[in-house]
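Case study 2.
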Amino acid sequence: MMPFTAARSTRVHYEVDGQGPGLALVHGMGGDAEKVFGNVFGHFTDSRTVIRPNFGGSGLTEDDGGELSVDLIADQITAAIRDASDGPVDLLGFSLGAVGAAAVAAAAPELVRRLVLVGGWAHTTGPRDRYYFETARRMLETDREMFKRFSALTGFSAAALDRFGHEGLAYSLADAWPPEGIGRQIDLALRVDIRPLLSEITAPTLVVGFAEDAMVPPAGSRELHGAIRGSRLVEVAGEGHMDWFADPGRLIEITRDFLDA
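Prediction:
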């Protein structure tokens, strides 16, 4: 039986595996618990209860199909954590999931032991970031194949795309991605501004950025680091936003070192 819990008017689906202290992994825009962390969670289940919530628009989570908000996805993440764990958890969020994870840590500090924000950002008010997500939204509406190409070209580094090769890139175009709910998630990405929340985060925090990230440039991670007291910043050289999907070893190492410190 697949685990579900309730948050506001939504039925939140999550995955849970392993035993031990809780570790919650939160996917990003257009992802889900399995697509983003399917080759990650097993590295932690020998000593952790790994919780992978699907926020609105992803996985089997059900809602009214209305507008998403940072508060709503934070409540969905929180509900899954409380349902699957008896105590505070370590919380890792990626991309839009990092935005949600930061909001959880600010609103429910008793729930978060340590916080890891990967490829995240604090706000989408700047010209470049608004232009990026507006372009992504228009492509999604007009030509889904072009949207997929755009996402690959900005989501992965040039080196990663070359490693995929012609065959791998053709395979990615044939994938059923993106999910139906991605449009709502892009709309949310366009409205992000969690700057007022960042000073409320008290959990020890690691911020991870990627030096070759053209989707969410590393300036976003630097701003998070600057606003969260006592946080640490690691910038991974030579990698784009989603390079770690193919080989998560470096991110797993960075995360494990921080959580076990």
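The chain is about 40% helix and 20% strand.
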